[in-house]
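(Fold this chain)
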Amino acid sequence: MKNLFKYILLIPILLLAFSCEDAFLERLPLDSPSSETFFENETELEMAVTGVYNRLWYWPAGIAWFLSFDFASDDGWDRNGSPLQALGRGEQNADNSYTNGFWAHFYRAINRTNFITSRAEHLRDEMDPADYDRLVGEARFLRAYFYAYLAELYGDVPLVTGTLTLEESQTPRTQKSAVIDFVLQELNAIKPHLPMNVGEKGRISRGTVLALMSRVALWNERWDVAATAAKELIDSGTYSVDPNYEGMFTFAGDNSPEVITRIQYLRGVQTHNLPRNFWSRMALGHSNKKPPQDFVDTYDCTDGLPIDESPLYDPQRPFANRDPRLHYTLVVPGTRLVNWIYETHRDSTMTWEFRGEDSVRVPNIEAQHAFASFTGYLYRKHIDLANYPTDVGSTDQNLTIFRFGEVLLNYAEAKVELNQIDESVYDAINILRQRESVQMPPIAPGKTQQEMRNLVRKERRHELGMEGFRYFDIRRWGIAEEVIPGPYRGRVNRYGEGGWLSEAPMIDPIGTPSYDHISNVGDMVVIETRNFNPDRDYLWPIPRIELETNTTLTQNPGY
């Protein structure tokens, strides 16, 4: 991705070309690009496409945008008292800065692509046409990517594919199905112009296109399209399941056979602060993004059974004999985090610190600190513990946004919904469950469609946990009103108690725990009470400022 970064310092000049015209002087600048002369050559086109890529650097509520959604799902919570926290409680409105920010940010990215497609066509005759189609194809992919999310979040949205005059700015909402049609048509159009694997994990490839096609089609119940796109990528043989699950979400993930595309960071250009968001106070983090007890308890035991059925589950040793993906995704009490044993029970006033080959007992600030993890758990995924940054607020570790594992599950789910459950469906799931670092029992054939539907939904939560999918999954499955409302719980954390549930919660067929029968449920930490209004909350509100400036827009129901 160094090829992309070499243009970053020129982007401020590019942005002027995108947005400014000097009517007063009535002449073109002599030393920088202008909207009147852009694009003159391939370099300027490359600069413009880079300008669309850098819209991936978006961190609402202090977290990477594609991860942020899960903190309004049953897998995450944001401690900061932010508008994101309000979304999780079902208290968002047309002035919520978190939901409004996506509209503004994504449309800025779309406008950049529209500028390219409206102004750059003449370059096809002045440079290698294949390079032209590839570069413009990358920008068109990103436009389709952002439109897919806009449609999923807001429903009907204005579909703008060219630059607009002031007179044209009053643009009504386009039906969601038509937006999705456009997204899939764009992806089909650009697919032939992109290599299957570019060798640079940040650039858009044909593999990225097929991955997004399978995702968007799945989200919109276009099962045939989802299955076909996923199967094309599977059959290409370009990507394979990484035996090292944890490694995909570290610096080493750049070279993973499973990773398709990553958002690129580079010290001195753009860094991020995920370690500060996720890690404990003793590891110099703020632990302000927290998983609930529900997320911990959804993971099966190593015999493939849920914790309420497995003889391997011991309530006094609740993290033993569990799906290894639990420990790759979350930090649980009693495990090592950087140089400390992570302990969160209030009686754990001391813990172990590792100093080289030695370990010493030290005061444990996680036990009683006002801003330590309220739930008792943290996230481990997306952070490279072997490359502990000296500044947890500034790391240049790249972040994975498309990987082969998701495509396999997209394929399996689409085929299940088509009721075409053959050996390839079991293979798609089992190759993930039986990767070398996971080794969970395979799913045996002979399941009904409903059984397979439940298995796929459960597998998505385990395999794709904290990768930005859970929020969309529970919405498209229509179960958000079942899994969101009620107390958001942490661990048992009462002075003088052992700190564990007295018995296993009841686990439903898709892995959702229920604590209604637990004898010591009253000792569990309750962070907040959440709500979800099914008549309103499946769509976000259209920003008030947009309604005021574009009077052809209408608001979503209930806002």
Remarks:
- Confidence is low (pLDDT under 50) at residues 8-33.
- The first helix runs from residue 2 to 5.
- The radius of gyration is 24 Å.
